[in-house]
Amino acid sequence: MNKIIVVFDGFCVLCNNYTSWLSKNNPNKNIYYTNFESNYIKEEYPNLKLENSVFVINKNKNILTRSSAIKCCLNHLSINILIKLFIKITPNFILDIFYDLIAKNRYILFGKNKSCQVPKNINSENILF
């Protein structure tokens, strides 16, 4: 199975909503989720620290960030083909400009949870604690 792991900021409301959206649009259920506070990250990737990015660990255990991580997730989703194509053909350096702008201001724009959370609507079998 071609599975990936999405590592997200559990305090960030935007990040939690993004993981919920991924889960909803991933028909094969081959995306797994964890946050920076999880034992999984502490044990398997102790040097991975919270930054202004969602991280994706692909099947080769490569760590992808920013637009590369988003594009990797798109390969596993059932969404509008035009949106998927637009994001795939847009160069990473352009997407990264917008990504960085939103990521640096995510708490101001979308809010911050008081505690680290995992969205409730994600299948528990796909959560790595």
Task: Give descriptors for this structure.
129 residues; alpha+beta; four-stranded mixed sheet; 12% strand; globular
Concise description?
By secondary structure, the protein is of the alpha+beta class. Helices cover 42% and strands 12% of the residues.
Count of domain modules: 1
Protein structure class: alpha+beta
Q: Count the DSSP helices.
A: 6
- Helices and strands, in order, run as EHEHEEHHHH
Low-pLDDT parts are none
- Sheet with the most strands: spatial strand order: 2-1-3-4
N-to-C terminal Cα separation, in Å?
A: 20 Å
The quaternary organization reads as single chain
Biggest sheet features: 4 strands, mixed
What is the approximate shape?
Answer: globular
> What do the pLDDT scores average to?
93
Total E-strand runs: 4
Q: What is the radius of gyration computed over CA atoms, rounded to a whole number of angstroms?
A: 14 Å
Beta-strand content estimate:
5-15%
Description:
The protein has one domain. The two termini are 20 Å apart. It contains six helices and four strands; from the N terminus they run βαβαββαααα. It has a four-stranded mixed sheet with strand order 2-1-3-4, covered by helices on one side. A hairpin with a 5-residue loop joins strand 3 and strand 4 (63-65). The model has no long low-confidence stretch (mean pLDDT 93). It is α+β, with helices and mostly antiparallel strands and 129 residues long.
Secondary structure layout:
Layout (H helix, E strand, L loop, with lengths): L3 E5 L4 H12 L6 E5 L3 H6 L10 E3 L5 E3 H9 L6 H9 L2 H13 L1 H5 L19
Parallel strand pairs: 1-2
Antiparallel strand pairs: 1-3, 3-4
